[in-house]
Amino acid sequence: MAEPRRILLIKPSSLGDIVHTMPVVAAFKQRWPSAHLTWLVKRQWAEVVQRIEGVDAVWPVDPTLASWVGQALALRAQRFDLVVDLQGLLRSALVARITGCTQRVGFANGREGSPWWYTHRVAVSTSEMHAVERYLLIAAELGVPVKDAPQFRFRLLSQDVTTLRELFRRKGIDLDAPWVAMNVSARWPTKRWPAASFAAVATQLAARGIGPLVVIGGPDERETSGQVQSLAACPVIDLTGETPIGLLPALLSKACALITNDSGPMHVAAAVGRPVVSIFGPTSAVRTGPYGAGHTVLTHDVPCRPCFSRVCRHAVPMECLESITPEQVVAAVVSQQSCRAVSR
Questions:
Q1: Residue 337 scores a pLDDT above 80
Q2: Helix, strand or coil for residue 202?
Q3: 257-261, strands of its sheet edge to edge
Q4: On the CB side of 198, how many CA atoms lie within 13 Å of its CA?
Q5: Where do the H-state alpha helices sit in 235-341?
Q6: pLDDT tens per residue, range 230-253
Q7: Which helix (H) or strand (E) holds 215?
């Protein structure tokens, strides 16, 4: 296709999906360096997208129909040459159509009738592929093949690091010294490994001289983080709710490793090159695991896994998740070269 001057990328959520989209941005910018790229995203994730290299404008949208319609009409005035919808839902496809752009690209297997509103539909041959590689099918269809490793490029702002360094100082630890991050919650109840198990991991790692352990998360995850802190037989630094979402790339870039459920921070850590030890229950690491080399995914297979369900209907509730032991997680952390350097 002719080089587009203005590109609209529609990927409003969620955090993990946003990270998976980053190689598409990198590929577009490498192929069309002078193109202006706007990203439409839910307002709660806008600060993360603002820190992605190659994004020229962030267009926040609120989770209401009025906001989506209003923003779509406003986008029409931008006169885009190319609109790429990676969300694949009716709402996102309608936004693409309302922009008036004559080249609207999305997946042929999009949901809610979304493919009807595209001018170009990209086929997906199998569901058993990672989201990063699925998104890059669209880049390839547009004549932007990615021959080397997909690129994840955050702008790690100096002011973000300064803010984090001061926060860590108030907590009595050094941001630039070795430490291990723990993300102990997840949006789905079926993705949440027990708080007692995370506490046991913290206790065992501390006994091995690995630490300090720093729990991260959003404001609504304070209860779970507090449980981990109270159950651990060692000091645990709790930063839950104290780091705005935009600081997450800089924060995790400073960690030696991340121990986590299947969650958005898992993908951010992988994107900034930090090793991840992730605990997977009902979801598939083939589709949405930490992308790249050097990560460990722990699972426990049962006949119904992966079910991709927010409600467990297995005879032994949450067996796929809760059968993973703290000892397995500790062994995976200890095996990471970066974590060996943490030992005092």
A1: no
A2: helix
A3: 236-238, 213-216, 180-183, 257-261, 276-279, 296-298
A4: 29
A5: 248-253, 264-271, 285-288, 319-322, 326-335, 337-340
A6: 999 999 999 999 999 999 999 999
A7: strand 213-216
Counting Cα atoms < 13 Å in the Cβ hemisphere of 219 gives 3
Distance (Å, whole) CA 195 – CA 216: 13
* CB neighbours of residue 13 within 10 Å: 15
Q: Which DSSP string corresponds to 3-68?
A: PPSEEEEE----HHHHHHHHHHHHHHHHH-TT-EEEEEEEGGGHHHHTTBTT--EEEEE-SSHHHH
What is the arithmetic mean of pLDDT over 84-92? 96
Give me the pLDDT at residue 343, please. Answer: 56
- If you ran DSSP here, which 8-state letter would residue 104 be given? E
Contact 72, 49 (CB under 8 A): no
In angstroms, the Cα distances linking 71 to 8, 98, 106 are 13, 10, 19
Kindly compute the dihedral angle of the four CA atoms of residues 242, 245, 249, 254, in this order, to the nearest 10 degrees.
Answer: 10
The answer to whether the Cα torsion of 61, 66, 68, 71 is positive or negative is negative
Q: Is the pTM of this model over 0.90?
A: yes
Task: Give the Cα separation of 125 and 131 in Å (integer).
Answer: 13
Q: Rounded to whole angstroms, how far apart are CA atoms 180 and 206? A: 11
